[in-house]
Amino acid sequence: MTVDPVLVFDGDCAFCTTCKDAAERYLRASLSSGGWEAVPFQFADLPALDSRAGGLGLVSRERAEREILWVTPGGQVYGGAQAAARLLMRSGGAWAYLGGLLALPPVRPLAAAVYRLVARNRHRMPGGTPACALPHRG
């Protein structure tokens, strides 16, 4: 089992993969406080990650299809904008301040709304394809 947090993302989505690649390129270059692992949910051991989080169903395919997940070694799970905030905070330097800002209570709802807007329209974003569209809820 890894000792680093795990970023779970949609590996079938070109936009998501492009964002993950940018994070690896720019955030890892400034990494000062520890590493992290990025895994497409299609290849992640989601049951093991959920078990790390107490087996409460916080890490699931359905959730990972809709938002990125940040799973800490201690089992905390953050989704969407808060997962991005935790990734930024983990990266250290100026990125950590941006992540901390996104995690502040007055900013969190706005960050979540922007994340949901981007997630709903990720197939329309640069690098997005029809495969990036979120699944329809039944």
Q: List unreliable stretches of 5+ residues.
A: none
Oligomeric organization of the protein chains: single chain
Instruction: Say how many strands there are.
Output: 4
| Major sheet details | 4 strands, mixed
Question: What is the beta-strand fraction?
Answer: 5-15%
Q: What's the arrangement of secondary structure elements?
A:
Elements: E1 6-9, H1 14-27, E2 37-40, H2 46-52, H3 61-66, E3 69-71, E4 77-79, H4 81-91, H5 93-103, H6 108-120
Parallel strand pairs: 1-2
Antiparallel strand pairs: 1-3, 3-4
Helix pairs in contact: 4-5
In a few lines, what is going on in this structure?
With 138 residues, this protein is α+β, with helices and mostly antiparallel strands. It contains six helices and four strands, in the order βαβααββααα.
Report on the architecture of this protein.
With 138 residues, the protein is an alpha+beta fold. The chain is 45% helix and 10% strand. The chain has helices spanning 14-27, 46-52, 61-66, 81-91, 93-103, 108-120; strands at 6-9, 37-40, 69-71, 77-79. A four-stranded mixed beta sheet has the order 2-1-3-4. Strand 3 (69-71) and strand 4 form a beta hairpin. The longest helix is centred in the N-terminal third of the chain and has 14 residues, at 14-27. The mean pLDDT is 90.
